[in-house]
Recover the amino acids of this structure.
């Protein structure tokens, strides 16, 4: 049975308090828990679980400042004016039909209010628009918050289903002026590292894993606790005024490649993470 096997369990904590079932698993005698972030490691240790720390990683030979998408100038490919302010979201539109961890409603409402003052702003949403995966009907939500159709871009449906080439994703991240990455809670948040590896700054949540994966020149937004009854733990909801303030600051910040973001992302390079974290862990546990 499952209790007869030994596990190295790479375990996210995507709430601001650890869900009881996650702790129940982590406390099994046959489980060696690995936290994805220092936040997760602290949360496990707070509850008496000794956890190693090994972060996710990205290939910085691929995720780097990139001017093209599918061989075409990135802004031309996206159909966005060169001088426009381009905000991006890279977040799976998957949910339970009522609560969405990726905070699409809050992020889109904040962008809609921000755009009233900055009509030359566009929003790229790298996600499935429909509810097919249990998420939200994004076109209806966009209409509800008042973002016009011509201000929103979605990925090509077939490419999204089969997966964009990493080189093309690097081009998408690079052409964004900022990645809007605030959510109810992240266990890690790989897009934040991918964006920064491409020199793009990030707006993220000041809780759960996100502060551990944002460099000093990105933005952290405030929130308030939200009880997740299904998992018996607290999320946190991004506050709309804080999101708008971060978007305003990003709008007036210098555009182009952020050297500070590039430098921060180097710490999450795949080879670096393997040598620094995975190799010593494997050697100590086999």
């Amino acid at each position: 049975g499952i209790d007869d096997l030994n596990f190295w369990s790479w375990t996210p904590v995507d709430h601001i308090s650890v869900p009881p079932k996650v702790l129940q698993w982590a406390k099994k005698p046959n489980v060696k828990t690995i936290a994805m972030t220092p936040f997760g490691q602290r949360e496990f240790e707070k509850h008496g679980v000794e956890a190693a720390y090994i972060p996710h990683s990205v290939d910085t030979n691929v995720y780097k400042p990139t001017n093209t998408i599918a061989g075409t100038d990135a802004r031309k490919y996206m159909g966005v004016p060169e001088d426009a302010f381009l905000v991006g979201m890279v977040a799976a539109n998957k949910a339970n039909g009522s609560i969405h961890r990726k905070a699409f409603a809050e992020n889109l409402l904040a962008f809609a209010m921000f755009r009233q003052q900055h009509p030359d702003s566009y929003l790229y949403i790298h996600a499935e628009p429909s509810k097919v995966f249990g998420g939200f009907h994004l076109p209806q939500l966009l209409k509800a918050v008042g973002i016009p159709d011509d201000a929103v871009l979605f990925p090509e449906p077939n490419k999204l289903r089969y997966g964009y080439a990493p080189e093309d994703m690097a081009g998408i991240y690079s052409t964004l002026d900022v990645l809007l990455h605030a959510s109810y809670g992240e266990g890690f948040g790989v897009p934040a590292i991918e964006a920064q590896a491409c020199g793009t700054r990030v707006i993220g949540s000041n809780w759960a894993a996100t502060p551990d994966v944002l460099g000093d020149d990105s933005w952290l937004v405030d929130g308030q606790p939200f009880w997740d009854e299904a998992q018996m733990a607290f999320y946190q909801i991004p506050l709309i005024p804080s999101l708008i303030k971060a978007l305003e600051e990003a709008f007036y910040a210098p555009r182009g490649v952020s050297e500070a973001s590039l430098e921060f992302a180097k710490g999450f390079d795949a080879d670096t993470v393997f040598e620094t974290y995975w190799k010593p862990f494997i050697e100590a546990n086999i």
In short: The mean pLDDT is 97. The first helix runs from residue 20 to 26.
